Amino acid sequence: MGRGKLRIYLGAAPGVGKTYAMLSEGHRRTERGADCVVGFVEHHGRPRTEVMLHGLEQVERRTLTYRGATFTEMDVDALLARRPAVALVDELAHTNVPGSRHAKRWQDVEELLRAGIDVVSTVNIQHLESLGDVVEAITGVRQRETVPDEVVRRADQIELVDMSPQALRRRMAHGNIYKPEKVDAALSNYFRPGNLTALRELALLWVADRADEYLQQYRGEHGIRSTWQARERIVVGLTGGPEGRTLVRRASRMAAKGSGSEILAVYIARSDGLTAASPKELAVQRTLVEDLGGTFHHVIGDNIPDALLAFARGVNATQIVLGSSRRRSWQYVLGPGVGASVARDSGPDLDVHIVTHEEAAKGRGLPVARSAAQLGRNRIVAGWVVGTVFPVLLCLLLTHVDADLGLANDMLLFLALTVAAALLGGLWPALASAALGSLLMNYFFAPPLHRFTVSDPRNIVAITVFFGVAVSVASVVDLAARRTHQAARLRAESEILSFLAGSVLRGETTLDALLERVRETFAMESVALLERADDLEPWKPAGSAGPGPVARPEDADVDMPIGDHMALALSGRVLPAEDRRVLGAFAAQAAVVLDRQRLVGEAEEARRQAEGNRIRTALLAAVSHDLRTPLASIKASVTSLRSDDVEWSEEDRAVLLEGIEDGADRLDHLVGNLLDMSRLQTGTVTPLIREIDLDEVVPMALGGVPEDSVLLDVPESLPMVAVDPGLLERAVANVVENAVKYSPAGTPVLVAASSLDDRVEVRVVDRGPGVPDEAKDRIFAPFQRYGDAPRGAGVGLGLAVARGFTESMNGTLAAEDTPGGGLTMVLTLRAVPRGPAPAQGTVDAGYGAGYDGGHGGGHGGGQAGGDGPGHGGGDDPGATGAPGADRAGTDHPLDTGHDRDRTTRQKAGPQ
């Protein structure tokens, strides 16, 4: 049974019509005779979308009960039993109700695909996991409902559903997306033209990248080497010289002229040592490239122009930027140079830009090293010509010139040719030159002439010494050349290994990035890291780079084993033996990176479990002691009031009722702190930032303490602060209540505020016993009270919740000593810059109120939710117009049911 195909309609923003497009595709397939059913579609009350459901078979949803409320989810089992050809599944990023088959809907879709069912689904660009931070920076909304990018990238088809911001806002104004009471809030917050334009650009660029991956795969499968100028890609050739920074900046300016352009800086390391690169300068240039949004690549190539052109064509580049040669004028006799060679061989599909710089024509710096093991065909031919042809020409010259130089000088001239042959072509041309020179001197210059006999014994010795010296010099020159090559080779390897180590130190430890680096370094088509559990199990890919990675090590051109059950498989060409040493280092690092990734995941899971166990243990301790104490008081008072044996006076009744009320208040406070702490631990606190004066919030936080226990000093002249009023009130209330609890009787706590530069400080000063310096940080830990003393009510969460709320508003809460004794809590907040226009506040991130608020609020976002995980992922940003968190836990932390919290929300007004 084959795997089903996945088609995704990617929406640039909520309301662009991706669900409508999905349903239209369902009707088209049904009309063509395909067995198409609706697995799950949420129409959000939009009449046109609801009409599109007519005529399509809908699989009945599964009903689940969670915390006393009933919800419906997609029934995966029913779909598998029905086995349609095509299933329409809306909202790929949706989080399922606890108790469902999987936690996320995309996991449900994966199961359908494995069963051979084709799936058509939808997702918005803001729900892609990698874009969470970008979307939050643009819209001020943190998306809690996300889907891994890889899930979407694996789709067989991705179709962008797009609409101009103006058209989308008109559609909303006409009531085609939200109910009329939500339109104004949505248009003024999330659906502002700037937000929509930025989201649209994100979607276009993401789809363009995906299309580029398809293009690269197609070109690789069909062996297309020519450049297709579908997108501007600028390759910058770096030599490690000081001109590199100029080239990178010039390329950046060129890329800025066209949207979507890419910069790829490449440094080609010569294996024969023909380089004068500065590692320090290369590191600086790499940092500059990455700061400008480009990527840095390190490639090995014996012929720099060919390697540079191969890299450029491999990445489908359209332009190459090179610097003017640093060689001096006389050095051009050695060759045209890299720039001229690249320009000559680039062809019509690559534009080559030669950029002038201050280092042009000033010399290359270090001398050029030579090698002998990989001389190249031209060098070898030249060596044989000098070693065999030049001695004959020299002989003709000496025999036709009336100058008797003497046999010794003749020998020196022939010896010079032997040395030249060794330098150019290596050992064998030099030996041939020595042998030929000896015969020529014997025949033409040693008496008797024109005979291969020597009459003078001194000449015999001279010719013999000449041959020995020639062979020795040739051997020494060739050996030196070979040692030079080995040193250069080791230097090239050390550069690569240093680069690999630097990548690890810089945090580039993802397996895909490392495998891509292997592919580029060794000029391979694809690289795959394969592993299996034992010798009988089939190989499985742990990671890959490049098109068409092999599935077995036997199918690869290069196979590098890593242990018994892991191997690095490369396809493209056979590597020479000397390259396998460096490849082995890459392979070992790949195994380490894979193990590290898995260990990080296991450690994170263990940390979460340990944190959960610690909180559960502390919670059980709190329930067993701190919560039972007020319950026992309430129970005793109620039992006394209901007793028929005692006739209580009105005054006694009032005392008992007051005890019940006090116990209930203590329970309310403890439960509120526990709920707030659970939200902080799960990261679901989303502030609703607005500009407000402190004198509007701080007095409201003092309602839980006696009136005479606090002195308030908050000047009206203080600048406004950008905070969530409800969170700030809760933070100040917890700090003040803690200070009052430890302050001596009759000594009020001082709450004072002041401004300093761009911040505002709220100081809560008490005259209690104080806290030592080494314990100042511990008092902010959950379930921690200084000295673990059981004094008063509480479970040690007040200060932890206060710090968590403060930090969620980009503020700080710290403890200081009070001069004269006591403790001072300093709450620092960001002041709003004074200006004509107030800062735009962020909006509540959440489609829905959560499961406790009812499934109907799950996509409306207008109801205070409960504590459970949220139900969202759809298009409706809710009453605030903010599509985002889609979870109940991400609703405002004030929605806990406390009267004070609901009052605060009402006072804050619509946000």
Kindly describe this structure.
Helices cover 43% and strands 14% of the residues. With 911 residues, the chain is α/β, with parallel strands linked by helices. The strands form six sheets. The protein has a six-stranded parallel beta sheet, sandwiched between helices. Strands 11-10-9-12-13 form a five-stranded parallel beta sheet, with helices on both faces. Helix 18 (511-521) packs antiparallel against helix 19 (579-624). The radius of gyration is 39 Å and the shape is elongated. The protein starts with 5 loop residues before the first strand and ends with a helix. This is histidine kinase. Its EC number is 2.7.13.3.
C-alpha end-to-end distance: 52 Å
Strand content: 5-15%
Instruction: Count up the helices.
Output: 24
Rough shape?
Answer: elongated
The count of DSSP E runs of length 2 or more, i.e. the number of strands, is 24
For the largest beta-sheet, the strand count, sense and barrel status come to: 6 strands, parallel
